[in-house]
Structure formats: structure tokens, C-alpha cells
Write a structure and sequence with these properties.
Order of helices and strands: EEHEEEEEEEEEEHEEEEEEEHEH
Oligomer: single chain
Strand content: 25-35%
Number of helices: 4
Largest sheet: 7 strands, mixed, barrel
Helix content: 10-25%
Strand order of the largest sheet: 12-19-16-17-14-13-20
Structural class: alpha+beta
Distance between the termini: 33 Å
């Protein structure tokens, strides 16, 4: 039982929740850039929230399912169809054996997540099936999908086991005010000389050379008060660095474990889905945030996901 890749899409990667506890060894966390859409896709497909999925960036693959399957697409809206019939997002979709799922452009964001009921049977590397592109391991041999790849399924699927009415799901995760730019909340950085107030004072644009390692921003250059040579310090996903050119970088899941640029702030975890969905050329703003506000935002997000999981469980296992 497998899924055959007929066309790979722009940059389709196999990702899960990432590798935890290994950054001290210089190993990136990796994993899904948009943890909200990743977890929701798995819940809709009837999987544990951390099961491996396909992360589609800007445009998706064409896949032939050699066995019946139940799939779910979450994240950016995407042009998706099976034999010309549109496939909705944010709900389970049953596919008979032999059908071809065509995933085109992402329409209103940068990334969509495809989960398959039963999971993808990929051997973990260092505790995770996630693709680490820079290190070249995990996922499909540490690289994006290629034409001709076969993705094994973990187990036989019972597609009739899941039925979730679309009204149970609120697919939107978007902190953009109506008609405004996305807003990302920032904790103050460890570098007291950093121009954090200037970071909040303007609108930034996502640079074309952004990638899974970092979201590079363009705007009026910021200038650090201290330009002396610096000792490298630990960094993590979410850290906002200030290179010598004054154009900030927001580190993402594939971030290195240390760096010498000033650390001028940290994007709160609850807003990582916002960062993950930004496309090159799109704009965003930053706002200050306290640690307590950051904890409350993340707790609220997790509680919402838990409520969705309970609602799905109730619908899939009705009382006798």
C-alpha cells in the first residue's frame, strides 16, 4: 500500500512535530512550520496530532493513491481536485483506490498540510520523520519529493470509519485584522543595545530569499548601537536576529543552533502559524508582548485544538 508521486510540486516535504532536545548537539528542530494546520490536518484524518504529513509550499504535488484512503488538507487554501472534482480543505475526504489527487497553487497562504488516515510509514531518524534539508536526513532521504517516489502507508485504512460534518471545523487561523497586515507578537530580546522599538515602528516585507531556516525581512534598515565583534550565542526558532545590513531575520524550524547576530526579540510560539503562511512580498508588522500574554495566547490555542479534537471524537464515536 503506497502513494505514488506523479509530480512533486514546488517543495513538498515530509514533516512531523520535529526533533526535540537535540539542539545542544547542533541538530535543527525541523518539523512543520505551521504547527496549528499540521495538528488540525492530522486530527481531521483520524491520526495523532504529531503524525507525519506532507508540507506543501506554494504549490503541491500530484499523487496517485494505490489504496483507498481518507485525507485532510489544512492551512493555506489550495487548488485541489480528484478527477476534476474539487477537494475541500479542513475536512476529511475519502478517496477510492486508484484515484489521482492533484494539488495546485496555494491560494491564500504559503503552506498546506496533507494528512492521510493511518499515517505515512516513514522510519524516524533521531526520533522524528521530519526532513532536515541542510543535514540531508529524515523524510524522503533528506530531500523534497521527486517524481516516482513511493510513500508507504502505515497500515490498512478503513475509510468509512471517519465522517465529520464541515460545520464542526473552523479552519481559519489568521491574526490579520480586516484589510490590515499580519501581526506577530514579540518578546524583547536579550541584547539591550538592539533597536527593538524601531522594529515595531514600521511595516516589513518578506524577502524572496526566505526559507525554512529563516524569514528574511526588508524595510528601513535598523542599526544596532554596538557594532563590535560578537561571540556566538544560542538561538532557537522564533529568535529575531539583526544582521549587519539592518534587515531582520526571524528564525524558523530549520534554524541553526547558534549565531553571532544581535538577538533583538523572539516571535511568540502562538504566532508561528502566521509566520509560516507569509509569502515572499507580503507585509507584516510586529507588536510587543509580555511573557504572560505569550503563555495565555499559546494556552488558548492549545485549548481550542483540544476542543476540536473532542468534537471530532464525539462525531466519530457517537453514543450507543
Amino acid at each position: 500500500m503506497s502513494i505514488e508521486v506523479l509530480a512533486p510540486g514546488f517543495a513538498t516535504l515530509l514533516q512531523d512535530g520535529g526533533r526535540s532536545g537535540l539542539r545542544r548537539h547542533g541538530i535543527a528542530t525541523a518539523g512543520a512550520l505551521d504547527p496549528w494546520s499540521f495538528a488540525l490536518a492530522n486530527l481531521l484524518a483520524g491520526n495523532p496530532p504529531g503524525a507525519p504529513v506532507l508540507e506543501l509550499t506554494l504549490s503541491g504535488p500530484t499523487l496517485r493513491f494505490h489504496t483507498a484512503a481518507c485525507v485532510a488538507l489544512c492551512g493555506a487554501g489550495i487548488d485541489a481536485n480528484v478527477d476534476g472534482t474539487p477537494v475541500p480543505t479542513s475536512r476529511p475526504v475519502k478517496l477510492p483506490a486508484g484515484r489521482v489527487l492533484r494539488l495546485g497553487r496555494c491560494l491564500d497562504g504559503a503552506r498546506t498540510y496533507l494528512a492521510v488516515h493511518g499515517g505515512l510509514g516513514v522510519a524516524p531518524v533521531l526520533g522524528s520523520a521530519s526532513t532536515d534539508l541542510r543535514a540531508g536526513f529524515g523524510g524522503c532521504e533528506g530531500r523534497p519529493l521527486r517524481r516516482g517516489d513511493r510513500l508507504p502507508l502505515d497500515s490498512a485504512v478503513t475509510v468509512d470509519a471517519l465522517h465529520v460534518p464541515a460545520w464542526w471545523i473552523d479552519p481559519a487561523f489568521d491574526d490579520r485584522p480586516a484589510g490590515g497586515d499580519p501581526l506577530v507578537r514579540i518578546l524583547s530580546g536579550s541584547d539591550a543595545t538592539a533597536p527593538v522599538d524601531a522594529l515595531f515602528a514600521q511595516t516589513w516585507r518578506v524577502a524572496p530569499d526566505s526559507n525554512r531556516q529563516g524569514l528574511r525581512l526588508q524595510g528601513a534598515a535598523l542599526e544596532a548601537a554596538d557594532r563590535s565583534e560578537r561571540v556566538s550565542e544560542p538561538v532557537v526558532p522564533g529568535t529575531v536576529q539583526l544582521p549587519p545590513d539592518g534587515q531582520p531575520i526571524v528564525l524558523l524550524a530549520d534554524a541553526q543552533s547558534h549565531g553571532g547576530y544581535p538577538r533583538i526579540g523572539h516571535a511568540i510560539r502562538a504566532d508561528w502559524p502566521v509566520l509560516a503562511q507569509l509569502r515572499p512580498g507580503e507585509r507584516l508588522r510586529f507588536a510587543p508582548c509580555t511573557r504572560n500574554e505569550a503563555r495565555l495566547a499559546l494556552c488558548g490555542q492549545r485549548q481550542r485544538l483540544h476542543r476540536i479534537a473532542l468534537a471530532l471524537a464525539a462525531k466519530n464515536h457517537p453514543r450507543a
